[in-house]
Amino acid sequence: MSFIEIEAVDLIYGEERTGTLAVSEASLSIRHGEFVALVGPSGCGKSTLLKLVAGLVRPSAGRIRVEGAEVTQPLKTVGMAFQNPTLLPWRTIRDNVLLPLEVVEPYRRRLRQDRAANRARADALLEAVGLSGFGDRMPWQLSGGMQQRAQLCRALVHQPSILLLDEPFAALDSFTKEELWHVLQDLWSRQSCTIILVTHELREAVFLAETVYVMSARPGRLVKRTDVRVARPRTLETTFEPSFVGIVQDLRHAIGAARCA
Amino acid sequence: MRMRSMLLARAAPWISAALLVLVWWLGVAAFDVKSYIMPTPGETLASLVRHWRPLAANGAITLATTLVGFSATLVFGTLIGMLVGMSRLAHQAIYPLLVAFNSVPKAALVPIFVVWFGLGAVPAVITAFLLSFFPVVANVALAFSSIEPELVDLIRSLGGSRRDLMVKIGIPRALPYLFASLKVAITLAFVGSIIAEVIGGNGGIGNVMLVASSNFDMPLVFAALSVVGVLGTGMYALFELLDRHWASRSARPSGLQGIENAS
């Protein structure tokens, strides 16, 4: 039984007839705890597909189900992270991480009682991403990569069953990026959540995901599915192995074809 | 070296003010300007001391009308700003009207208010409000309309309501915008109430200036002007202080300060 089921979904932005078709006949199913990556040329509707899964946008046609129930409003059990860190500049790093707990039930009701526990949870997460001791800093005191780590903590603090990542490493330099791949891999193996990662970096997709889907240029269609059978934990060494490089090459060809199609 | 440059920075505004007074004094002395055209700083000071009682009493009136008008700005400016910033429909419906109202010279409206409300404090309060509220509306509206779409998605994806978005993000994010606009607004409110007092008032520092200039008592006009200057600067400084205290915790130190500290 699949956890997330996307069936023949179309999405049209704007008016029914005149609007632009952003996603066309997307169908895929995702297992519980699966790590999926969506790759494709820019503007192909990858991010839109994320919003569809989160219930932030309703599909124009087709259906999306999570745990068997059709998604008709924003899901409350997702964590999201974006390309920009989007930390709130007036809050300390710890309070930024704790933001979801102030909004999501059932944490919200128990904020008072659980203050100490929540604080400990935020600090544990910060430690897991290598930010221990930074909880009391303000966002501007952290580098871009560190802010992005903090954003990952914010996305995970309420223990979401689905984590939606919209090019979270796209704005980082390649060293920081590769470091954060490891951080994310560790987090995923520790918290058993289902992850959908949108990216345009193929090595990133293959390094992190179990299943990679390629989307075509607009209107976005899923044109290829690749299972990445590379042992974990994956390291930087892995990325130089022929099998890894082979998968990346295949994907690159598929995207080249998808862009021309 | 560090110590001396800091002292210099502290003293700089006083030194430049003293230079300005000196130039004024020398100018009046050099061209032998009559006191009923332009008094010397000394004559102004003497008039200030001699008439301190009416100046203080009327200064208090001006301060009171300014603060009442400014309070209205604080309340309605913030509310209308929120409305315009959050709702596209409200923006379409109200904002062009606000811009149109704002471009009407307020001085021209004072006689109308005098006809409607009579001489006294009411026209001054209204003028202070009208002159000062637009910057607050514009700034607060900008704060709310420029919330990052990612943050809206984030709150919605957590099952948060519109109210959560306001409380957790919209309002704290708007505070620096609000405080910045209040600094401008308080000065404009001052200008507004004084304009009204000059045109159609029976009290306040503006009225003192009107009466004094019709008596050719220029030293008193200048004494009143200096009272206005002190009050306006004081109010601005107060809001500058509040701004720093409440809203700027999140701001990184500005680049210029960094350069000065480094050198």
From TrEMBL, chain A:
> In Gene Ontology terms, what is one molecular function of this protein?
ATP binding
Q: Where is the ABC transporter domain?
A: 6-242
| Coiled-coil regions, chain positions | none
- Output the superkingdom of the source species: Bacteria
Q: Which Pfam families does this one have?
A: ABC_tran
User: Which EC numbers characterise this protein's activity in its record?
Assistant: 3.6.3.-
UniProt keyword terms in alphabetical order: ATP-binding, Hydrolase, Nucleotide-binding, Transport
> PANTHER family in the record, alphabetically?
ALIPHATIC SULFONATES IMPORT ATP-BINDING PROTEIN SSUB (PTHR42788:SF13), TAURINE IMPORT ATP-BINDING PROTEIN-RELATED (PTHR42788)
The entry sums up its family as follows: Belongs to the ABC transporter superfamily.
Spell out the protein name for this chain: Aliphatic sulfonates import ATP-binding protein SsuB
TrEMBL record, chain B:
Does the keyword Cell membrane feature in the UniProt annotation? yes
Asked if the Swiss-Prot or TrEMBL record annotates the protein with the keyword Cell membrane, the reply is yes
Q: Which domain of life is it from?
A: Bacteria
Q: Domain named ABC transmembrane type-1: which ranges?
A: 59-243
Q: Which residues cross the membrane?
A: 54-85, 97-119, 125-147, 175-200, 220-239
Which is a Gene Ontology cellular component entry for this protein?
Answer: plasma membrane
Give the keywords, sorted: Cell membrane, Membrane, Transmembrane, Transmembrane helix, Transport
What subcellular locations does the record give?
Answer: Cell membrane
Under the heading SUPFAM superfamilies, the entry gives: MetI-like
Give the residues annotated as coiled coil: none
Example of a GO biological process term = transmembrane transport
List the membrane topology term(s): Multi-pass membrane protein
Member of which family?
A: Belongs to the binding-protein-dependent transport system permease family.
Name this protein carries in UniProt: Riboflavin transport system permease protein RibX
Species, as recorded: Methylobacterium symbioticum
The encoding gene is: ribX_2
